[in-house]
Amino acid sequence: MPDSVIITRPLAQAGALAEQVRALGREAVLLPLLEIAALDDQGPLKAALAGMHDCAMVAFVSPNAIDAAFAHIRVWPAWVSLAVLGEGSRAALERHGINDHTATIVSPRDPARSDSENLLETLDLAALAGQKVLIVRGESGRELMADGLRAAGVLVTTVAAYRRKVPALTPALAQQLCALMEGDNDWIITSSEALRGLVALVQEMGDPALVEKMQQQHLIVPHARIAETASSLGLGRLTLCGSGDERLLAALQSRA
Q1: Phi, psi of 27 (to 5 degrees)
Q2: Checking DSSP bridges between strand 186-188 and strand 218-221, what pairing results, if any?
Q3: pTM for the model
Q4: 17-65: per-residue pLDDT in tens?
Q5: Could you read off the pLDDT of 157-182 as tens digits, one per residue?
Q6: For the residues 190-203, what does the mean pLDDT come to?
């Protein structure tokens, strides 16, 4: 059996998965590779959410976007549909009382491709043409969803709800990474940005041998786009499992 399971999600989203990993008899190590912070100025987010009653749909790019937005939402307008990219976002909506029984939620048909491209393929773009859609996302992010909607004649507004950054390479983090490279671990990677940050941190340590050891680690990823990022970075040992904690855990069990 491989050694530890490295969970690289932001700390606030890692606890429940870590408990389930430990229930499988595996050691769970929390290594958050993205730090999530609220924006200093909440004004634009509040203003955008105040105007969502005129929208046909609000799209959330991540669970972080959902949590940040619902800090300012008291009641969801029933006539406004929601679009999300994966099961993690559906779980985040559920925490705020939003599910398929209380609202119309659209997500990609293919759980292995929980990305903007597949969501655009799933949406009824013709029905959305001429209508308003709000996209809630991080301070930086891909424009693909917004561009795809605008190309279909949708009136798109985007608003930032949070910021994210890769943690700095402290001596403690460097020591932890060195120790992890010595094992044969399963790394749960749920973000291309986090994966690029991880490789950059290892490279920053200045030891080519550590980079080679990182490339030998096994990754479990939920999205094809993350798998493509891994391949471009020289990480070839991976399992593409599809979106949702259940699929992540099933992939871990198959490694036992």
Answers
A1: -80, 130
A2: parallel
A3: 0.77
A4: 999 999 999 999 999 999 888 899 999 999 999 999 999 999 999 899 9
A5: 999 999 988 999 999 999 999 999 99
A6: 94
